[in-house]
Design a protein that fits this description.
The protein has 307 residues and is an alpha+beta fold. It has helices at 107-115, 127-182, 204-210, and strands at residues 2-9, 16-18, 23-26, 33-34, 45-49, 54-58, 66-67, 70-71, 75-78, 83-86, 89-96, 215-225, 228-237, 243-253, 259-274, 279-280, 288-289, 298-306. The strands form 4 sheets. It has a 6-stranded antiparallel sheet with strand order 2-1-11-10-7-8, with no helix packed on it. The chain is flat.
Length: 307
């Protein structure tokens, strides 16, 4: 039985990788599975086959390796069917049945087979097989010819449905961006009245960091959507210029206060200009994609730069 690594979420979904040799995963191009994902470390994890079973190892990553929603420490032996996630990527350990070995034919057997074959035009043993093949093709060809128009129509209908779905999704996305860009509120002298209460009030250090670039974070939370968990960030433009892009450090902590995800200098907003004093509310599909295991975490956002 040959264990294999199969992608079930992210950039390598549907792909299968042999574990005959150890497999490394990370952003580094030298890794066996190299994925340019900001939630991954350069050398994130290692998967190998041992005498005890398949070994999944965290090779010192920043965001860790999660099995059943729990972050592992070091190396863990797993069973076939186990799923694990790292950053926004997820994989499963599968096992394939034994491969079919080719049948070896000895030289004496090949010589015996050669004796049954006469020169071209005199092969009486193969001629009946050729006749049977010709008869079979002549019987199935009319059926294939009748079936071809239906197959062509089904393929055309599928292409039309795919194009229609893309147009509908693009329209929904445009409406969401327009609605979010149109929502604004005038600046006030008391920001506390405009901001919803948080689970924990920001410290003086957080307030100083959030206002360093004039960008004030109104709320930041993880929302489960149809495309997976997204970090939704609502913010207000306190600068004196239009803002089309905001970069920030984003940290997610669990209920005990332990850090489970850290994203450095990521783009949290990029789109239509937000005017001074206006507030940006993220659209339905707008947000930062995060792994499945951090759905209940608390989010902290520290703006770094605007453009």
């Amino acid at each position: 039985m040959e264990p294999r690594l199969v992608g079930i979420q992210g950039a390598r979904i549907g792909e299968s990788f042999s574990l005959a040799q150890p497999v490394t995963i990370g952003r580094d191009p030298a890794c066996s599975i190299s994925i340019q994902d900001q939630t991954l470390s350069r050398h994130h994890a290692r998967v190998s086959q041992t005498a005890q079973g398949v070994l999944v190892e965290d090779t010192g990553s920043a965001n860790g390796v999660l099995i059943a929603g729990q972050r592992i420490s070091g190396a863990v032996v797993v069973q076939p069917g186990t799923e694990f996630s790292l950053g926004a990527q997820a994989f499963r350990i599968d096992v394939l049945g034994p491969s079919v070995r080719p049948i070896e034919v000895s030289s004496s057997e090949r010589a015996t087979q050669a004796q049954t074959t006469s020169p071209m035009g005199q092969n009486n043993g193969c001629l009946p097989l050729l006749n049977d093949l010709e008869n079979g093709l002549s019987g199935i060809m009319p059926f294939l010819l009748r079936l071809f128009p239906w197959l062509l129509a089904a393929l055309l209908a599928l292409v039309i449905l795919m194009l229609f779905g893309k147009v509908v999704m693009a329209g929904i996305d445009m409406i969401g961006h327009r609605d979010s860009a149109g929502q604004s509120s005038p600046p006030t002298q008391s920001p506390e009245k405009n901001y919803p209460p948080q689970d924990q009030p920001p410290s003086d250090t957080d307030k100083k960091e959030n206002s360093a670039q004039g960008i004030r974070i109104v709320s930041a939370a993880i929302e489960i959507t149809s495309v997976g968990p997204l970090i939704k960030i609502e913010w207000e433009n306190g600068t004196k210029t239009d803002v089309q892009e905001v970069k920030a450090d984003v940290t997610v902590k669990d209920q005990s206060g332990e850090e489970i995800l850290k994203l450095d200098n990521v783009v949290v907003f990029q789109g239509k200009a937000v005017h001074p004093g206006d507030r940006h509310t993220p659209g339905k599909y707008e947000g930062i994609s995060v792994p499945l295991g951090v759905g209940n975490g608390k989010v902290k956002v520290v703006p770094l730069s605007v453009r």
